[in-house]
Write a structure and sequence with these properties.
The chain contains 12 helices and 18 strands. With about 425 residues, the protein is α/β, with parallel strands linked by helices. Helix 11 packs parallel to helix 12. It is globular, with a radius of gyration of 22 Å. The two termini are about 45 Å apart. The chain binds iron/sulfur cluster.
Amino acid sequence: MASQNTNKKVHIISLGCVKNTVDSEIIAGGLESAGIELTDDPNQANTIIVNTCGFIGDAKQESVDVILEAAQLKKDGQLEELLVAGCLSARYKKQLTLEMPEVDKFFVTEDFRRIFKHIAAKPHLADDPDHRRKLLTRRHYAYLKISEGCDNVCSFCAIPLMRGKQRSRDIESLVKEAHSLVARGVRELMVIAQDSTTYGWDLKPKRYLHELLTELDKIEGLDWIRLHYAHPSHFSRKLIPVLKNAKRIVPYLDIPVQHASSNMLSAMKRGLDADGLRRLLLNLREEIPNLKLRTSIIVGFPGETEEDFETLMNFLDEIKFDRLGVFTYSEEEDTSGALLKDDVTQGQKVDRMDAVMQLQHGISFEKNQALIGQSLDVIIDAKDPENDDQMIGRTVWDAPEIDQVVYVSGSLDPGSIVKAVIEDAGPYELYASAKI
Ligand code: SF4
């Protein structure tokens, strides 16, 4: 066991998406295993690491604000060292170094070993730091990041500029990590990547997502496996029987379509046109019983006409996604989208986003109402902080943090999976009682 390093007390602030959470978990795990104390309280720390997000304008601003707040602690004399890592740092390192002298050091994404070496003042000797993750999620679920980076060229997206080309991990190391997570009490695994459907294409020899999922599906002790970020253009038919016959992979697919007008899909460089998308989604629903689809949409991309938007709305009304997130377009420098004239006003973007949300509100409400009276498996996440007499959980069709919850009456163990009868439903939540 590593000896206690008494000089450092580190607080990690993890911003942005769950892929960043995994990076923070690797940093935290490495430091903890070297005997360095971690604290949840920034006021108790002498070192703060801000793991930033650089996705879109609002996320970048949030990262800058958080760095400035931490910098204030340093000015006040409480904090000795401020370190910045993650996507924003990877993308704007030069500029930030000039503009933020309060920051002691900037690291790029995946700089785990350098961050470790800097703080622990010794080299990181672990063969595979991914196995030393300290989970920052609830004990019973975890994210499995199967690859880093992205080889796609979606015109609105700067992620490849920050995270680089795709680098997939090999199947053996992912299965090993999944086993070690299960041994630590994880029952639900969220498979994540920038584009999970191109998993393994960069490996030599090439490997494929259906092969990885087949192996993960064999892991005893794992109850639910959930697939995220499936790019519709790269969705292989070989995935269908795996998803359909799986023991542990839940009938849930996160498949971001981004738009549904062929003009927009082409301008966004998304590969499939609207007919291709429609065929794929209808086919998935037909072949995989009980499948629920989650998607995300961008409105207000340059050149989006009223007609394009109407096409999108008709498509959403036809497909009736089970879960949906909608964003307004924001121009990202150095992307090919930034070369296009951003001709949709902010007011139009917000109106279109509201219209999508209103449509989805009705669709979700109707779908949830149809569940009343049914008995469903629910994983219990936690006690409801606002009501001591009920728990908060999720169905197999809901991912943590982003999808709806089920309020289950009574007191139940977090991490348990119970049968619950749905008694009432709102547009984005269900109410149930557990069957004893
Ligand atoms: S698939 Fe497209 S949107 Fe997703 S990370 Fe890659 S480039 Fe960005």
